[in-house]
Amino acid sequence: MKSNPASATLSYDQAGVNYDQIDPLKIAAQRAAASTAGHLATHGCAEVAASRGESAYVVDVGPFYLASIVECLGSKALVADAMHELTGRSWYDGIAQDTIAMAINDLITVGATPLVVQAYWAAGGSEWFGDAARAAALVDGWKRACDACGVAWGGGETPALAGIVEGGRIDLAAACTGIVNPRERLSVGDALGPGDAIVLLASSGIHANGLSLARKLVERLPQGYLTPIAPGLSYGEALLAPTTLYSPVTEALYRAGIVPHYSANITGHGWRKLLRHARALTYRIHAVPDVPPVLRYIRQQARQDDREAYSTFNMGAGFALFVAEGDAERTVEVARAQGIAAWHAGRVEAGEKQLLIEPLGIRYGADDLQLR
Amino acid sequence: MKSNPASATLSYDQAGVNYDQIDPLKIAAQRAAASTAGHLATHGCAEVAASRGESAYVVDVGPFYLASIVECLGSKALVADAMHELTGRSWYDGIAQDTIAMAINDLITVGATPLVVQAYWAAGGSEWFGDAARAAALVDGWKRACDACGVAWGGGETPALAGIVEGGRIDLAAACTGIVNPRERLSVGDALGPGDAIVLLASSGIHANGLSLARKLVERLPQGYLTPIAPGLSYGEALLAPTTLYSPVTEALYRAGIVPHYSANITGHGWRKLLRHARALTYRIHAVPDVPPVLRYIRQQARQDDREAYSTFNMGAGFALFVAEGDAERTVEVARAQGIAAWHAGRVEAGEKQLLIEPLGIRYGADDLQLR
Fold first, then answer.
1. A363 falls within a domain
2. B38 assigned to some structural domain
3. B310 near B316, Cβ under 8 Å?
4. Interface pTM, i.e. ipTM
């Protein structure tokens, strides 16, 4: 069966995203962006330079720090659209949560408390908003995600962009602003070091990263999105499990007196995100969480080995907290009290920059993570 | 020629945006958003309720106020794409400024100093970013607009969204966060009242509002975007004049000791935006600025009367400042010192909610502005 493309390994590059074309622009943009930092001084503020390259941008405004971000959902809405045609129900309540999670879960990595979310809902035409059930699901899901994270929904944009966004589609994004208060909560990696414990927080499934590959894969499945992957669970429904919101955990940690030394949101690049910080450190994982059924299924169908799978998907761990060794067990308890499974899964050590997932015999080195 | 559709009046509704389909969603979203305000108290913050319905959302964070916003460019990039095909040059440096202006010019209406801009550049595929000249123009224009406004470019998103954004197109938006500092700069209309002077700031052309109609119109022009509208100036080039950035004026006003009682960014709905504040007041305009050639041309070609034109386009005035009568002349001088023409154009009076443009004999009442 080697010659049958339907049974060949499917990698992320084959799924249609060519980073070689995007990277030169990103590098130019990052350079230009960095050159604007000096403007803040004219307003009595200053950039936290270490936040360049982190998941959110941080500005010192005096009494506390300001953090801000804009994040795109990506292509998960296409799965919701396909499943709507197949099942008749709207899945946009979950899609709303996914979109907010993309922004919130990044913003909190720097120690910020999210305060305000702005909605960016750009439809292919005004008729998108004319489907009342879908529109109501989007609004309800957005509000419930704001409630879960304790953020105010400030407002947003709902443009109809015929000719730019495809007809019947919607481009969803969220902007989020928060504060790091008190200033000691700032987490851009200064405190990260040997001896820290690695606590992993459970994911709910694929979250909103790796969907291009997951959508590509559906072409191979005889029943498409309705293919059962577990009793009573279709592939499409499993993909659409909303992304876990982690800010209730980071806020509860602060209330419990625990300030993480560093955090990583495990999104694109999968577990390689554990190597996110620039410092040369070794991350040794001694326990891996159970893999959610949908990710187990994708790995199997895409003929990925563990190394490829863990470098693409979250594989059951959606967020990593690096905490003082003595705080590890309590961190796990605090997360579980918020309804999110957590594991004291590893340890930071002095040594070359690498991630060792010992139970699986996987090693990723510094070269394996070129962040984009 | 009455039966020739090419000579018929072209209104905004005919240009393809059907607000009746969007409005129910917007109302539901606004209601849901308002219900999330209470969360701020758990973080020691509070919503400035009067900012709901204003151009930016404001939160009281204690020492000062925080303002945030996300804004979409709209369809102006389609004009740049068409002009690129016709002229071979990229117009995305100006498009970048337009996008930032959409966010900044709204954010400053509440009295905020813009601090951080985040870029949202969602392309129809990775190949969009592969056009190096266009990508460089976008980056350069974005940086120059940040420099002009004294904001830090914090970062952003550059997703490739094949299947959502059309191939070869890009969906551009900007998120902006700022602070209102000192708190006395907050401007949500409390100070607006009879006797205030109305100062209008010049626009550079169509800015980024009314482009659906302007693009529709091009179908009637024998030479399309290359139709000359003035010696050496094509319709397309005139449309692509970058939107004026007004934050240098509002910052200079503060340095000059002038705090506007209210501000209005004149975007969609044209001069009806002068009626933006909820209060019942009469706005009497005694002088109108010269109309930029491109807007004069559109009005003529679309067979619009003044009433329709001023209710759709900025007609030469892109921003309105409502200041104490005694500050009016100095406000004009401060704007001119920033290179932006300005006029002491009218006055706020007690009376029913209406805008009277006396030189043109136009009256808009409260019913003429249903803000969306």
1. yes
2. no
3. no
4. 0.95
